[in-house]
TrEMBL record:
The lineage of its organism: Bacteria, Pseudomonadati, Pseudomonadota, Betaproteobacteria, Neisseriales. Coiled coil: none annotated. GO terms for biological process: DNA restriction-modification system; methylation; mismatch repair. The keyword Repeat does not apply. InterPro entries: M_m6A_EcoRV, MeTrfase_D12, SAM-dependent_MTases_sf. The keyword Lyase does not apply. GO terms for molecular function: S-adenosyl-L-methionine binding; sequence-specific DNA binding; site-specific DNA-methyltransferase (adenine-specific) activity. Keywords: Methyltransferase, S-adenosyl-L-methionine, Transferase. It comes from the Bacteria. Pfam families: MethyltransfD12 (PF02086). This is DNA adenine methylase.
Length: 289
């Protein structure tokens, strides 16, 4: 369960769960889901999904994001990777280019999926913490300690995109409301599948995501999950409202670091669907709260 692996996703993401992959793998193993399908209705950076695919834990992955810019990024690198890589190679990393890409993402209907997806990628790599509606690294005057190119190593990012493209036939990309997707999940993923939901944070979502949720939105997710017969788990920021919404399900508080998932009086909470078996304590390197 230990080990800080190299990032697999080209995106930086607030609350990214790439370090969560060892725990998800243990869930897949103890529920005998290896080689099945894996769905993330709130994919974002999709770090876990890529890890499962590249390491043969999941035969096919389904990644969904309601944000048209993030969806366009995944659609572009899965379906038009050569054109995307050409853009990556030819586009300068400058403040003038940042303003240009900002205009594209603010007028999505005026641009192609490729252009919008690249704009999302460009801003993700050049904005503070990867937040699309955030400010540029180093400020617009570029007088900060770090410049906007600080998180933009073209060679490394191109290598990640090429690896994803090599698995394109195993990756399915969607741009749907998560509740709508969950409601029809039995139509496109088999029984030996795992659904992992990492919805926008309850308390801080509005500051981090372009698509943040109201209380009723969170309730709708819980109600949709109650109606399906696939195995699912959900992670959230730990707060009384979420604990109440999911009160009939098993819950663990945890702290997530790069080396392990540890049960504790932590900042986040894991909720288990009714048919999901939990990995044994020794697999998780956990301790009691």
């Amino acid at each position: 369960m230990a080990g800080h692996s190299k990032p697999l996703t080209p995106l930086r993401y607030p609350g990214g769960k790439g370090a969560f992959a060892p725990f998800i793998k243990s869930i897949i193993e103890c529920n005998k889901l290896k080689g099945g399908h894996y769905l993330e209705p709130f994919a974002g950076g999709a770090g876990v999904a890529l890890d499962l695919l590249f390491n043969d834990y999941s035969q096919e992955i389904h990644i969904n994001d309601l944000d048209p810019a993030i969806y366009s990024f995944w659609h572009a690198i899965v379906n038009t990777s050569k054109d995307f890589l050409d853009l990556l190679s030819s586009t300068p990393i400058s403040i003038n280019e940042w303003h240009k890409q900002k205009q594209i993402i603010n007028a999505p209907h005026c641009h192609s999926t490729l252009e919008l997806g690249f704009a999302a990628f460009f801003l993700n790599r050049t904005n503070r913490s990867g937040i699309l509606k955030g400010g540029v690294i180093g400020g617009k005057k570029q007088d900060g300690i770090y410049k906007l190119c600080a998180r933009f190593n073209k060679e490394k990012l191109a290598a990640r995109i090429r690896k994803i493209s090599a698995h394109a036939s195993q990756i399915h990309v969607y741009n749907q409301n998560a509740v709508d997707l969950i409601n029809k999940v039995t139509d496109f993923i088999p029984e030996n599948s795992l659904i992992y939901l990492d919805p926008p944070y309850y308390n801080k979502g509005q500051g981090l995501y372009r698509n943040f949720y109201t209380h009723d939105d969170h309730v709708s997710i819980c109600r949709a999950l109650a109606k399906i017969d696939r195995k699912w788990i959900v992670s959230y920021d730990s707060c009384i409202q979420i604990k109440d919404i999911y009160s009939i399900y098993r819950q663990d508080e945890y702290a997530l670091s790069y080396c392990a998932y540890k049960k504790t009086k932590g900042a986040e909470i894991m909720i288990y669907g009714p048919t999901v078996l939990e990995p044994i304590e020794s697999q998780l390197k956990t301790h009691s709260p």
